[in-house]
């Protein structure tokens, strides 16, 4: 699971009002190279919740992202490369996603988070 | 062929041997690719820029492959673990999620530029467990889908409805959740090639209309158009109707008026006019009695 997906996911349990962002517990990481595409990065930048993204990146060991960002930084090639690396190339292979409100854990196995809910959580 | 929906719930039906078919059978692969191509055509993305798409019921990632070929990033969701494992083997480019779309999607609002689904949504019409209510699950799914799509984004869902009732159930659930759009039926006269695509649009398009006078035209030119003309134009575009409003039910109206001070005063006035002897109106007229009475 990439951080792009992590940034889109929120906890879906009934009654949870603030299920975003999910905490990450890392057991295994993997890096896969993905083709660099500045157009896609610029397009998806406004949709990213930066604070959640930056903190999630930190948990995965990427510390070179700035805390504050503005759209003008997208013209900077160096920034784009770092953004690209954190957003698309680092994969969480094994670990857990943790709901910030209830503490419920969603296990991640082979890079696939298990978001299935029990009957009483729907 | 018997309908797979009749045999077992999706998480059990798509077991290892069934999922295996999706890597080995060239016929299935070909059909899936063709369906996805058509879905992309109906999705009508505004430009060729890479987008973030959602693949609902992505299964073994066959549909995702077509999306990747066009340069889009995608996130896929499926309920069958075995199918997702096949997708891993096939090295699908998108991210995969194990989830039940009938429980909602658990995605942030307004982030996806489009969604496709190939032969998945009709599974929601099954009530495999006692706690599953197809209507509720469909509502849950479409509400979540509506939320996670950007305004003006489209969703194209290819479905295999069992009968017209099921088709109606799915379509009406989508409309009730705020989608506009409708059904596209390919090859409607052939029973084999017939394919249903539910094309949904979430809200008005996010593209702004063009402002006037950008090309240097002056304001006075526009003013020359007569107002009557505009009205006529409006009339030509819309259908007139009249007498659609049903008269409100009488009983409801009467109930509202009945009993109470106003009603008593009105009745007394009527009696007075008719020449009867009526006690005068005081502050005690129509007053409620105490509880002990």
UniProtKB/TrEMBL annotation, chain A:
Subunit structure: Interacts with TRM9.
Species lineage: Eukaryota, Viridiplantae, Streptophyta, Embryophyta, Tracheophyta
A single Gene Ontology CC term: cytoplasm
Similarity field: Belongs to the TRM112 family.
Protein's UniProt name: Trm112p-like protein
Source organism (scientific name): Selaginella moellendorffii
InterPro entries: Trm112 (IPR039127), Trm112-like (IPR005651)
GO biological process, one term: positive regulation of rRNA processing
SUPFAM superfamilies found in the cross-reference section: Trm112p-like
Any matching Pfam family: Trm112p
Molecular function per GO: protein heterodimerization activity; tRNA methyltransferase activator activity
From TrEMBL, chain B:
Segments forming domain Methyltransferase type: 54-129
Gene3D superfamilies: Vaccinia Virus protein VP39
Locations listed in the record: Cytoplasm; Nucleus
Keyword Nucleus annotated: yes
InterPro entries documented for this protein: Bud23-like, Bud23_C, Methyltransf_11, SAM-dependent_MTases_sf
Record region (Disordered): 208-293
UniProt KW keywords: Cytoplasm, Methyltransferase, Nucleus, S-adenosyl-L-methionine, Transferase
First and last residue of the signal peptide: none
Protein family (similarity comment): Belongs to the class I-like SAM-binding methyltransferase superfamily. BUD23/WBSCR22 family.
Record's protein name: Methyltransferase type 11 domain-containing protein
Organism: Selaginella moellendorffii
């Amino acid at each position: 699971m990439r951080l792009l997906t992590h940034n889109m996911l929120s906890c879906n349990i009934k009654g949870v009002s603030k299920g975003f962002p999910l905490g990450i517990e890392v057991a295994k990481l993997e890096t896969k190279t993905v083709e660099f595409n500045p157009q896609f990065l610029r397009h998806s930048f406004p949709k990213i919740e930066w604070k959640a993204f930056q903190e999630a990146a930190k948990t995965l060991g990427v510390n070179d992202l700035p805390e504050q960002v503005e759209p003008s930084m997208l013209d900077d090639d160096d920034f784009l490369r770092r953004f690209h690396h954190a957003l698309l190339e680092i994969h969480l292979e094994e670990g857990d996603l943790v709901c910030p409100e209830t503490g419920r854990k969603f296990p991640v196995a082979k890079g696939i988070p298990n978001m299935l809910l029990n009957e009483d959580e729907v | 062929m018997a309908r797979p929906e009749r045999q077992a719930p999706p998480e059990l039906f798509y077991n290892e041997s069934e999922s295996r078919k999706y890597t080995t059978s060239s016929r299935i692969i070909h059909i899936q690719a063709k369906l996805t191509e058509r879905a992309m055509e109906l999705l009508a993305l505004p430009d060729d820029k890479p987008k973030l798409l959602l693949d609902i019921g992505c299964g073994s990632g066959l549909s995702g492959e077509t999306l990747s070929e066009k340069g889009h990033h995608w996130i896929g969701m499926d309920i069958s673990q075995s199918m997702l494992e096949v997708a891993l083997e096939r090295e699908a480019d998108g991210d995969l999620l194990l989830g039940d779309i009938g429980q909602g999607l658990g995605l942030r609002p307004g982030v996806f530029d489009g969604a496709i689904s190939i032969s998945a949504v009709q599974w929601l019409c099954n009530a495999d467990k006692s706690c599953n209510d197809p209507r509720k699950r469909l509502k849950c799914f479409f509400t979540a889908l509506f939320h996670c799509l950007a305004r003006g984004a489209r969703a194209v869902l290819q479905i295999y409805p069992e009968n017209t009732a099921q088709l109606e159930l799915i379509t009406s659930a989508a409309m009730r959740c705020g989608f506009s759009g409708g059904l596209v039926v390919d090859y409607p006269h052939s029973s084999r090639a017939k394919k249903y695509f539910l094309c949904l649009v979430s809200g008005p398009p996010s593209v702004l209309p063009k402002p006037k006078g950008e090309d240097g035209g002056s304001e006075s030119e526009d003013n020359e158009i007569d107002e009557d003309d505009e009205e006529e134009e409006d009339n030509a575009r819309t259908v007139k109707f009249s007498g659609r409003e049903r008269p409100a039910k009488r009983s409801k109206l009467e109930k509202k008026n009945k009993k109470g001070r106003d009603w008593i005063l009105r009745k007394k006035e009527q009696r007075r006019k008719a020449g009867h002897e009526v006690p005068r109106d005081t502050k005690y007229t129509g007053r409620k009695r105490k509880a002990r009475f």
